[in-house]
Amino acid sequence: MKNNNINADIKISDDVVASIIGLAATEVEGITSIAGNVTYERLAKSGTKNRSKGIKLVIEDGCITADLYMNMKYGYSIPVVTSQVQERVSNAIENMSGLKASSVNIHIVGIDVDR
């Protein structure tokens, strides 16, 4: 096999990174949605592709700082769930984009109560 050293840049849009983050975050049990956004299940059913509302990004020198504004289910431990979100989001960013997650800040802005 021949190894061609090709000099090429790969650009990943902020929207793609935000979608990766949103999907990873909403996979954590206890998270119901990204604030300002419907749940991922509703998005998938409707075909809507904008999953990045409620996510603010700063990308500099291959490092990402992300702020996620999220809603949780009542009855879950906020410290436990937010720690799981941080871990899952950091892993998703690094595995899928090759960028480093320097900071993943979680803001719980609402609690959903199922009655």
Topology readout:
Blueprint (H helix, E strand, L loop, with lengths): L13 H13 L4 E4 L5 H7 L8 E6 L2 E11 L4 H20 L2 E13 L3
Q: What does this protein look like?
A:
The chain has 115 residues and is of the alpha+beta class. It has a single domain (14-112), classed as Alpha-Beta Plaits (2-Layer Sandwich). Helix content is 35%, strand content 30%. It has three helices and four strands; from the N terminus they run H-E-H-E-E-H-E. The chain has helices spanning 14-26, 40-46, 78-97; strands spanning 31-34, 55-60, 63-73, 100-112. Strands 1, 2, 3 and 4 form a four-stranded mixed beta sheet that branches. Helix 3 (78-97) links the parallel strand 3 and strand 4. The longest helix has 20 residues, at 78-97. The chain starts with 13 loop residues before the first helix and ends with a strand.
Low-confidence stretches: 37-51
* Oligomeric composition of the shown chains: single chain
**Mean pLDDT metric:** 84
- Our count of domains comes out at 1
Global structural class: alpha+beta
CATH superfamily: Cation efflux protein, cytoplasmic domain
Apparent shape: elongated
CATH class: Alpha Beta
Percentage of residues in DSSP E strands = 25-35%
**Span of the ends, CA to CA:** 61 Å
What's the gyration radius in Å? 16 Å
Please, how many helices? 3
Percent of residues in helical segments? 25-40%
Number of strands: 4
**Major sheet attributes:** 4 strands, mixed
What string, H for helix and E for strand, traces the elements in order?
HEHEEHE
CATH architecture: 2-Layer Sandwich
CATH topology description: Alpha-Beta Plaits
